Amino acid sequence: MPILGITGGIASGKSEFRRLLLERIDADYFDADACARELLDKDPTVRQEVLARVHPQAYDEEGAPNRPLLRQLIYQDAVRKATLEAILHPVIRDRWSAQAQEPAYGNRFFVVDIPLLFETNAEKLFDIIVTVACAKETQLERLATRRGLDRQISEKIIASQMPLSLKIEKSHHVIWNDGALEALITQADLFSRYLHARHG
Ligand SMILES: CC(C)(COP(=O)(O)OP(=O)(O)OC[C@H]1O[C@@H](n2cnc3c(N)ncnc32)[C@H](O)[C@@H]1O)[C@@H](O)C(=O)NCCC(=O)NCCS
Ligand SMILES: Nc1ncnc2c1ncn2[C@@H]1O[C@H](COP(=O)(O)OP(=O)(O)OP(=O)(O)O)[C@@H](O)[C@H]1O
């Protein structure tokens, strides 16, 4: 069954759409953000590499990653950003590619929620690519109210990602998530019906 990638800018609603879609289709899924988080939290090799190559204070005394510091560092320094990505992205890709090949997924959809799908040149690995999109002001507003991020860092994160117009151009489908949750639910309904009709 097809491998379906869900991508989009920060706070566009990828996870919300994935959750709604998974209630409507028979699929398993992989969450690239969750995988990155798990690797940073628990993987000893990643920890060692991040401390040596990204920043010596990247972890606190209890061994927990200092995410606000890492966020500040990578979005103001492209070299550090590339270094952190070089440590994490190959492991993340290996993990979801291996999971997608497991026989249990033979006749189901495999959904990958991956914010940097295009930035990591992963499009050839997907059968269907969906971009979840919204206005930049909506991203900024969600980041401020739900994540407590100030406008300056939010702007930097958005600027570091591929422009939305390009993501839309490269996608098979676009979900516009700028309105009420009901509008997203309606789109999840429609899209799941399309998937059933097209792929059984
Ligand atoms: C720098 C970190 C610690 C900041 O953590 P924070 O809790 O603020 O963000 P979180 O991980 O929840 O990501 C939220 C969103 O930020 C955006 N984002 C994350 N990493 C990146 C990146 N390298 N480049 C551009 N945008 C990114 C994505 O839209 C993502 O959905 C974290 O984002 C991280 O480890 N990033 C590197 C790993 C990565 O590239 N992850 C993306 C998925 S593969
Ligand atoms: N249509 C909507 N109406 C109201 N709130 C929404 C809507 N869509 C998403 N949200 C909320 O906005 C926030 C961001 O959504 P979500 O976590 O799904 O985005 P994301 O693209 O996965 O984010 P990230 O890039 O940070 O991983 C969440 O708190 C979510 O509940």
Automatic annotation (TrEMBL):
GO cellular component annotations of the record: cytoplasm
Reactions that this protein is recorded to catalyse: 3'-dephospho-CoA + ATP = ADP + CoA + H(+)
EC number(s) given by UniProt: 2.7.1.24
Chief subcellular location: cytoplasm
Protein keywords: ATP-binding, Coenzyme A biosynthesis, Cytoplasm, Kinase, Nucleotide-binding, Transferase
Single Gene Ontology BP annotation: coenzyme A biosynthetic process
Compartment(s) where it occurs, according to its Swiss-Prot or TrEMBL record: Cytoplasm
Residues binding ATP: A11, S12, G13, K14, S15, E16
Annotated function: Catalyzes the phosphorylation of the 3'-hydroxyl group of dephosphocoenzyme A to form coenzyme A.
Protein name per the record: Dephospho-CoA kinase
Species this protein is from: Terrimicrobium sacchariphilum
